[in-house]
Amino acid sequence: MAAGTATSTKRATATARGGGSTGRVRRTLLAALVAAAVVLPVSAAASPDVPAPIPVAFAEDAAPHDRYTANRASLAEATRMATDAGRTGRAAKLRAIEAAGTAQFLAFDGRGRGRAVEVFGDLETADRVTVLVPGSDTTLDTYQRFRAGAVSLQQRLQAEHPRSAVVAWLGYDTPGTVSTTVLTAARADEAAAELGPFLAWLGDVSGPGARLSLLCHSYGSVVCARTGTGPAVTDMVLFGSPGTGADAARDLPTGARVWAGRGSDDWIGNVPHARLGAIGFGTDPVDPAFGARAFAAGSAGHSDYLKPGTESLDSLAAIVLGTATADTAAPAATTTTAEASHA
To answer: Is 230 left (phi over 0), alpha (psi -120 to 50) or beta?
Structure first.
């Protein structure tokens, strides 16, 4: 636990012990926030000592296809090193990724928990580009789950708009679901410092006049809410969100339209959307008071938003393609000035 987080936790606990109704409310809230961090089991958490080659360093102007080729070689070497080290679980997962021989990684780091930025579609001709930002416990050991969502979205988009591309951006060290890091914005702040410049670069290498959309799941919505976006980003979508740390959509560092949705079966709806010092993320993005545009998410569970055939996938595709109807938009009264600039 970081020193700042520890201090905030101690202060919150000390206040909660103060007695009276206020103390009981704060104590209950703090307990609920901590419980939210352990509501799901960790799956295949990665050991920090997984061996892999040093990530390939690229010049700023390196073309996407050159990055793909170099990173496929890095992926193959990471698979070999994991096998030689007896890390059979990681090796099997990497082998599954490289099986087709066509993986398109803009960045790949097989060390420890791992990082990866993978493209689905033809990025350099796409005029609709979506960046998926994952939430907690997304590592190379759980990457197939995240990757499946990206593939599902890309297939759904291309059915209507062939010039589409999806970028699965595992470009940060996600917090563990069973950890105190998932309760604070520290990891999100680090991620936002990486994501902002990446979005600017992506706008330059995508097809002419490309529209970029940010789709931000769970803790990923905290990341997006701290990321400054340029004019190429037209839509920011928060789904399965624990909150963003902001009180309103107009407070986010973006001129994009801000959307929010939550499925009826998503457990995160039971997490208190409140903040105690550095713990918690405040206002629920699906609350009309937040001012985001609402989209229909159907009965999606927390990990179901991008599953084929779901209402949530259809809604997300419509937002990316710019065809979302008035039925899925919040009333005009909740639309911010920044959002209106893209209307």
So the answer is: beta
How many separate helices (H) and strands (E) can be counted in the chain? 9, 10
Q: What contacts 316, CB < 8 A, 6 or more positions away?
A: 153, 215, 237, 239, 295, 305, 306
> Does the predicted TM-score (pTM) go above 0.85?
no
Planar angle of CA 45, 50, 55, nearest 5 degrees: 115
Instruction: Kindly state the DSSP code that residue 178 receives in the 8-state scheme.
Output: S
Indicate the pairing of strand 293-294 with strand 257-261. Answer: parallel
Q: Which two tokens stand for residue 287?
A: 């609350």
C-alpha to C-alpha distance for 5 and 234, rounded to whole angstroms = 34
User: In this predicted model, what pLDDT tens digit does every residue of 119-141 receive, in sequence order?
Assistant: 999 999 999 999 999 999 999 99
Question: Which residue reads 């949705």 in tokens?
Answer: 261
What's the CA gap between 68 and 102, in Å, rounded?
9
What gap in Å lies between CA 168 and CA 148, rounded to an integer? 10
Listing DSSP states for 274-325 in one string gives: -EETTEE--S-TTSGGG-PEE---TT-BTT-TT-TT-HHHHHHHHHHHT---
* Separation of alpha carbons 330 and 56, rounded Å: 44
Per residue, the 3-state secondary structure of 21-64, as one string, reads HHHHHHHHHHHHHHHHCCCCCCCCCCCCCCCCCCCCCCCCCCCH
**Per-residue pLDDT reduced to its tens digit, 47-84:** 567 899 999 999 999 999 999 999 999 999 999 999 99
Please state, in angstroms and rounded to a whole number, the distance separating the CA atoms of residues 272 and 99: 43
Nearest Cα to 242, choosing from 45, 32, 42, 43? 32
CA 117 – CA 199 distance, rounded (Å) = 12
DSSP string computed for 123-152? TTT-SEEEEEE--TT-STTSHHHHHHHHHH
